[in-house]
Design goal:
alpha/beta; Alpha-Beta Plaits; 3 domains; 8-stranded mixed β-barrel; 5-stranded mixed β-sheet; about 55% helix; binds ligand C2E; binds calcium ion
Length: about 575
């Protein structure tokens, strides 16, 4: 029985074998070919001794002549064995062919059967062909092996590279074997490269690899580790055969300890450390790409943190931070390149007469995929770029609308969303005036939607700005009404024109009488306050019916129109 140490050594060897050896042809094929060879051989022997003559189409046929056909079949089997089974096949074939010589030679010299001379030569020919095929095969296999070694090996350090690491992970995943992927990155390695040059930098990397390779292949390890270098000062570790994450962290700690011991090159001492982040298959992620990205996320978190811990397990919270960072980059990029655009969603009165459109921000990532406003608007709010997004949508949609109204004379309203943060900015009024002037849009055709919940925080300043907007003749809508904390007294102070009932109430409306009553009450309150009421997110005919019954003034929802590109929306006006 294999002891624990042997089994670990063996596992490490398999790990490397798995990524460097091609899959072999099944043994069943070999057995089949051998069987065929023996049968062909047996028939050949019997046929060659036969004295029978068959008459075919009046012509005599010596049955012994058929021996040549079956002998060729046997030789084909031999050649196939050499082609398919390489070295083993070659040895088997050689033994089979050579083992026939005593019988053939004794038939000639003792039995004086000189027809067998042909068999000797056929055998010699097959041996020659086998040798040629085998030599050629070996050359190709060696070349392939070399190419493959090169493809999976990091040239500088001689350890496996990213490709090898992927192969191993895919292999483990196909066997549903749990493992941890560790991503590590040396801290401040760049400064060694910059101050001491790349040659010293390379020597440092080689020394680190030497130490880490020794740890990875140490049979005393609690875990089975596989080390790879994808490039630069980054390394990947695949750790398996562990009990729990404490064992994983103990394993990683060994690499960290080895790294932190001084490295001396050309009489200069270097002190290094690294950040380690890890993610587990299958609990954290199920594909190599996602595992690497999660392990990287955790590693970057460690790098950026001021804490002393240098090892971190990935969590979903980290993914969110990373996603937000990615979204932030996309927003900054889109603003820089002015690629934020907008769709227009129609609003109708209950008789399906067009009231106007709400402009909704849209953004695509580099691959051309839409990013949902539900994702990028909150990020833009958080990083203080929402005013730039609002403004971009406002400017572009106002230019389009101004032109459309001038051309068609249509009495329609453009609703834009303005975040309260933006509203509070001192130059907001100047921005409005500037855009109205440039777009030729009349204030009466513009409406500004403000979300109710946010206004409550800074009501006085908000009321001041809103008063100014109203004085210009622009309409004000209270967005997402019902989701915030508005009180009636507050609503009373608020000089709005339109109340937008949030989609969540419309969704619930027909589920119970009390939900229906709730929407009916909102509409009544709106009317008492002299406001028009619009319902958002209307999708079903039943919802539309109910809203008509309880006196809603306007409808916005997929039932009558989704947000559309401006050129499409324009067709609804013409
Ligand atoms: P919102 O202002 O409440 O806009 C209405 C949202 O409901 C839009 O989502 C619209 O596509 C969606 N919607 C309308 N009718 C239906 C319907 O029948 N069914 C369903 N399922 N959805 C419907 P969108 O475009 O994803 O916008 C999401 C939110 O992003 C907006 O909610 C708004 O709060 C914000 N937003 C969009 N553009 C801007 C902008 O330019 N500035 C600011 N500050 N916020 C914006
Ligand atoms: Ca809105
Ligand atoms: Ca809304």
């Amino acid at each position: 029985m294999m002891n624990k140490k042997d089994s670990k050594t063996n596992k490490f060897a398999t790990t490397l074998n798995n990524v460097s050896v091609n899959k072999e042809v099944s043994k069943v094929v070999l057995i089949f070919l051998l069987l065929l060879f023996f049968i062909a051989n047996f028939i050949t022997q019997n046929l060659s001794q036969s004295q029978d003559i068959w008459m075919i189409n009046g012509q005599p046929l010596h049955v012994s002549m058929l021996a040549g056909v079956t002998a060729s079949l046997g030789n084909i089997c031999i050649l196939l064995i050499v082609i398919l089974f390489g070295k083993v096949g070659f040895i088997i074939s050689l033994l089979l062919l050579l083992s026939q010589f005593p019988r053939l030679l004794s038939a000639i010299f003792l039995g004086h059967n000189y027809a067998t001379v042909q068999g000797v030569f056929t055998n010699l020919l097959t041996i020659t062909a086998s040798v040629i095929i085998f030599m050629n095969h070996r050359r190709v296999v060696n070349y392939q092996k070399k190419m493959r070694e090169q493809a999976i090996t990091d040239q500088l350090t001689g350890i496996p590279n990213r490709f090898a690491c992927f192969e191993l992970m895919n292999d483990l995943i196909s066997k549903h074997e749990k493992f941890v992927l560790v991503s590590t990155d040396l801290n401040n390695f760049k400064s060694i490269n910059d101050t001491m040059g790349h040659t010293v930098g390379n020597e440092v990397l080689i020394e680190i690899c030497k130490r880490w390779k020794a740890i990875a292949s140490d049979p005393e390890n609690e875990t089975v580790d596989f080390l790879a270098r994808p490039g630069g000062d980054e390394f990947l570790l695949v750790i398996r055969s562990y009990e729990d994450t404490a064992a994983v962290e103990r394993a990683i700690q060994r690499y960290q300890d080895a790294l932190e011991q001084k490295i001396t090159i050309d009489d200069c001492d270097y002190f290094l450390n690294a950040s380690f982040g890890y993610a587990e298959y299958p609990t954290d992620a199920e594909t190599p790409i996602v595992l690497i990205s999660y392990a990287d996320t955790a590693m970057h978190e460690v790098k950026d943190s001021s804490k002393n811990d240098r090892i971190l397990h990935f969590t979903q919270d980290l993914a969110k931070i990373e996603q937000n960072l990615a979204t932030e980059r996309k927003i900054r990029n889109a603003l820089e390149q002015d690629t934020i655009f907008y769709y227009l969603q129609p609003q109708y009165d209950v008789d399906h007469k067009l009231r106007g459109f709400e402009a909704l921000a849209r953004m695509k990532d580099a691959d051309g995929n839409m990013i949902s406003p539900g994702v990028f608007i909150p990020v833009a709010e958080k990083i203080g770029l929402i005013d730039k997004v609002d403004l971009s949508v406002f400017r572009k949609s106002a230019m389009f609308f101004g032109k459309l109204i001038n051309e068609t004379n249509a009495d329609i309203t453009l609703s834009i969303n303005i975040s309260v943060r933006h509203l509070m900015k001192n130059n907001f009024m100047d921005e409005i005036r500037d855009i109205l002037e440039k777009s030729n849009l009349q204030p009466k055709n513009l409406e500004i939607e403000i979300t109710e919940s946010i206004m409550i925080d800074s009501i006085d300043k908000a009321l001041e700005v809103i008063g100014e907007i109203k004085d210009m003749g622009i309409k004000i809508a209270i967005d997402d009404f019902g989701t915030g904390y508005s009180s009636l007294s507050y609503l009373n102070k608020f000089p709005a024109d339109l109340l937008k009932v949030d989609k969540s109430f419309i969704d619930e409306m027909n589920a119970s009488e009390s939900s229906r009553q709730y929407v009916a009450t909102i509409i009544s309150i709106g009317h008492i306050m002299n406001l028009d009421v619009i319902s958002e997110g209307v999708e079903e005919p039943e919802q539309l019916e109910t809203l008509k019954e309880i006196g809603c003034d306007f409808i916005q929802g997929f039932i009558w129109g989704k947000p559309l590109p401006p050129e499409e929306a324009e067709k609804l006006v013409l």
